[in-house]
């Protein structure tokens, strides 16, 4: 169902408003407008879900352009795991040497560590998935995904190893964080950082829209029509990695929002990247706020599911459908 | 238009082009032929400014092609790859309009290019939903939408996926470009396509220019047999390889 850029953005904007209303009314105390002392927690959680969802979606969109791969997303390519490992390493070192995250490190230290972990992971996956220099053909999508899976597993193993080195209390925090959750009381500076990055990424995507369109050609053909491909790719590389890392620092690794949101926006708005950047951010925010609202209503007896589990359950089948459809496209080519 | 002077190119530590000196002028239509791995694609990519030369010079209108900004180069040179790639789910029309990225949207030029390459019926269909031959024609249409009449088309096996009729029609459009004051350099494997498209032939052997002359001078059975290692007969429209007699 394609609406075109303006109508599609309006539909997504309306969906986001509905999701926000749903999240504000739904909480651990049930459905309804909460007491005054609860409201600020719901507002903070909603703002965090909006910022994280939009940032993940823009990161996914940039990765899909950068790698010319519809399956690319921060989670699938292992960026979230790499960022998670970097974040946990910073936390571990802070604990091990008694540095204190609020003192010597400040909030920025885990974010920097997560960013480094994310960029290193992206660099490794890109390197493995790319074809030899001089070949302008696209990197093989399945190779990229497999590289992401393996690198993600290695980073995940590293995170698990770090868990075993910390005391039980901190370990519990680690485990809860690794499942992906929207905090009710996020650190304001981190929330603002993610929100600003998400807005900046959306603006950048809209600004670079025509270049992103042309970058969907092969390297040689993109340069031939006038795209300065190297600086464009470097910018996308750094921005996608930083966005993914910031979301991990705030909410832990959250699966598939970065994959599904750009595709949902494409279905509604079309493939041009200028409107798609705005649409992806709206779709990402909508998906994560809606998922966080939905999880308030799902209690399997052991408490509410972390939002990362919910997005993985919903996003996994969509990923498999995309994998199948891109395999069909490769077979037809 | 383009001048190459003693061009040497290395890729992955291997010398791929050696001592190439030649030029392309307005009105030229050049076919590059040679065995596999002779350096044909590397030569057109070097002319397009995609590959840095080890030594030598590639000059476009008196300026080093590699040092021109992509936007500036896009106004003078259009490149068509052997395998067109459009990773985003664009329609055929949108994929052709990408040629106007650096030069400003121009719906009339895009429409003209669509008509020129017989793509009107599939213009609104997804690029991924058309045949490989149609995709190749769409890539040619994008190049025509991109540049003006007095510019250079660099084509890497532009007819590889086209049937005979489509090849003849596209070759005619490309010849028109050269006849109108532009220039064309195309990598080709098929000698019939080379004689249909080009007035001039470059033969590459192990990265060196073994011959540079008119199709009549260069494409003789004796010389071709020497370069390709098989026999040729003289046909009514040029040499024909004796593929059926190869053991």
Description:
The complex is a heterodimer of chains A (333) and B (247). Chain A starts with a helix and ends with a helix. Chain A has 333 residues and is an all-alpha fold. In chain A, α2 (36-66) runs parallel beside α8 (188-207), α3 packs across α11 and α8 runs antiparallel to α13. Chain A has helices at 5-25, 36-66, 79-96, 100-105, 108-129, 141-163, 168-178, 188-207, 209-214, 219-224, 229-251, 257-269, 273-296, 307-332; strands spanning 26-27, 30-31. Chain A contains 14 helices and two strands, in the order αββααααααααααααα. A two-stranded antiparallel sheet of chain A has the order 1-2. Chain A is globular and about 55 Å long. Residues 134-138 of chain A have low confidence and may be disordered. Chain B has 247 residues and is α/β, with parallel strands linked by helices. Chain B contains nine helices and twelve strands. In chain B, the strands form three sheets. In chain B, strands 6-7-8-3-9-10 form a six-stranded mixed sheet, with helices on both faces. In chain B, β1 and β2 (14-24) form a beta hairpin. Chain B is globular, with a radius of gyration of 18 Å. The mean pLDDT of chain B is 90. Chain A binds chain B through residues 65, 68-70, 132-134, 136-138, 210-211, 213-214, 216-221, 223-229, 266, 271-273, 329, 332-333, and chain B through 11-12, 42, 45, 48-51, 69-71, 73-74, 77-81, 83-90, 94, 98-103, 128, 132, 139, 142, 146.
Please describe the topology of this protein.
The complex is a heterodimer of chains A (333) and B (247).
Chain A (H helix, E strand, L loop, with lengths): L4 H21 E2 L2 E2 L4 H31 L12 H18 L3 H6 L2 H22 L11 H23 L4 H11 L9 H20 L1 H6 L4 H6 L4 H23 L5 H13 L3 H24 L10 H26 L1
Antiparallel strand pairs in A: 1-2
Chain B lengths: L1 E10 L2 E11 L4 E6 L5 H8 L7 E6 L2 E2 L5 H5 L2 E4 L11 H6 L9 H10 L15 H15 L5 E5 L7 H16 L3 E5 L3 H7 L2 E6 L2 E7 H4 L2 H8 L3 E4 L2 E4 L6
Parallel strand pairs in B: 3-8, 3-9, 6-7, 7-8
Antiparallel strand pairs in B: 1-2, 1-4, 4-5, 9-10, 11-12
């Amino acid at each position: 169902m394609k609406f075109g850029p303006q109508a599609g953005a309006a539909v997504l904007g309306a969906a986001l408003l509905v999701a926000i209303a749903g999240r504000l009314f739904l909480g651990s105390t049930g459905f309804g407008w909460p007491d005054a002392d609860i409201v600020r927690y719901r507002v903070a959680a909603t703002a965090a879900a909006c910022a994280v969802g939009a940032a993940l979606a823009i990161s996914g969109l940039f990765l899909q352009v950068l790698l010319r791969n519809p399956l690319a997303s921060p989670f699938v390519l292992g960026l979230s795991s790499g960022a998670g490992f970097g974040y946990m390493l910073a936390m571990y070192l802070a604990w091990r040497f008694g540095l204190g995250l609020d003192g010597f490190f400040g909030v920025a230290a885990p974010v920097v560590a997560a960013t480094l972990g994310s960029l290193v992971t992206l660099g490794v996956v890109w390197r493995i998935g790319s074809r030899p220099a001089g070949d302008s053909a696209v990197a093989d999508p399945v190779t990229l995904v497999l590289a992401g899976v393996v690198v993600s597993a290695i980073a995940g193993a590293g995170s698990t190893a770090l868990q075993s080195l910390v005391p039980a209390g901190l370990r519990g925090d680690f485990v809860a964080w690794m499942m992906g959750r929207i905090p009710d009381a996020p650190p304001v500076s981190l929330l603002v950082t993610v929100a600003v990055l998400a807005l900046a990424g959306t603006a950048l995507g809209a600004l670079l829209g025509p270049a992103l369109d042309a970058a969907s050609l092969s390297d040689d053909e993109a340069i031939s029509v006038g795209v300065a491909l190297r600086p464009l790719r470097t910018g996308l590389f750094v921005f996608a990695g930083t966005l993914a890392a910031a979301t991990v620092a705030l909410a832990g690794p959250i699966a598939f929002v970065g994959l599904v949101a750009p595709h949902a926006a494409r279905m509604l708005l079309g493939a041009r990247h200028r409107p798609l950047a705005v649409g992806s951010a709206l779709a990402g925010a909508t998906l994560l706020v809606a998922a966080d609202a939905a999880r308030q209503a799902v209690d399997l007896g052991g408490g509410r599911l972390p939002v990362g589990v919910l997005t993985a359950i919903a996003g996994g089948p969509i990923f498999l459908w995309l994998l199948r459809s891109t395999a069909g496209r490769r077979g037809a080519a | 238009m383009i001048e190459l002077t003693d061009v040497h190119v290395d890729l992955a530590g291997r010398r791929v082009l050696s001592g190439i000196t030649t030029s392309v002028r307005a009105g030229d239509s050049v076919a590059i032929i040679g065995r596999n791995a002779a350096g044909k694609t590397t030569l057109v990519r070097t002319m397009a400014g995609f590959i840095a030369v080890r030594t030598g010079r590639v000059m476009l209108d008196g300026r080093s092609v590699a040092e021109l900004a992509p936007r500036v180069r896009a106004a003078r040179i259009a490149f068509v790859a052997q395998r067109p790639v459009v990773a985003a789910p664009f329609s055929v029309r949108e994929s052709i309009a990408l040629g106007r990225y650096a030069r400003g949207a121009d719906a009339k030029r895009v429409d003209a290019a669509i008509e020129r390459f017989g793509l009107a019926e599939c213009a609104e269909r997804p690029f991924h939903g058309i045949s490989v031959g149609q995709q190749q024609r769409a890539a040619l249409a994008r190049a025509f939408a991109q540049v003006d009449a007095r510019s250079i088309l660099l084509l890497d096996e532009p007819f590889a996926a086209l049937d005979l009729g489509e090849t003849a029609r596209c070759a005619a459009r490309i010849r028109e470009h050269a006849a109108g004051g532009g220039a064309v350099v195309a990598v080709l494997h098929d000698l019939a396509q080379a004689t249909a498209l080009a007035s001039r032939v470059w033969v590459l052997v192990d990265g060196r220019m073994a011959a540079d002359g008119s199709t009549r001078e260069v494409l003789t059975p004796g010389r071709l047999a020497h370069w390709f290692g098989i026999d040729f007969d003289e046909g009514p429209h040029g040499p024909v390889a004796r593929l059926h007699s190869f053991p």
